[in-house]
Structure prediction request, 169 residues.
Amino acid sequence: MSKKLTFGVDDLSDSARENFVGTIVEANYPCECDMCLKGADSLGEDRKDSLHIQISPLSVYEKRQHEWLVPSKTKLSKWGAFNIRLDEIGILKKIKSPKDLVGKTFEFESIEVSVGFGDKKVSCWVPVRLLSKKEVDDFIDNTDGDHPDIDEYLPDDDYYDDEDEEYED
Ligand SMILES: [Zn+2]
Prediction:
């Protein structure tokens, strides 16, 4: 018996990884977690000089998602791509240190970032938009189970209390 195979392009996603909503629960530079202390990853990316961002998913994924950003002067880098997104979202000026990212809930998408010369590309989680406190609360209400991983980061009453004037263009 042969399996049916459908050729086409309409159903193909641009990304191998599905968008998700998640809360940044760790952002450390330098980071001294076990993953970072091991040094370079399988792609040869050195994690010792990276900002290590850990995202606890509220949708799609079960496990924490990780991103490593090496500080860079060029837009053609994961660092550049991430900062450009923060700027587009309108919160870049509010991010003075890695800790300012912690507790924020974004929708994330995976994009391919060209790095350096040649055609080397790496995939990177970058924020699409910042969720409001109400949206985060709705996500919590509409998902089954607890979120012990992020409970301590869930928005309190002063989360984005200035969102109207600060977080929208
Ligand atoms: Zn780390």
Residues 28, 31, 33, 35-36, 52 surround zinc ion (CB under 6 Å). The chain has one domain: 20-144. The CA atoms of residues 42 and 76 lie 21 Å apart. Confidence is low (pLDDT under 50) at residues 161-169.
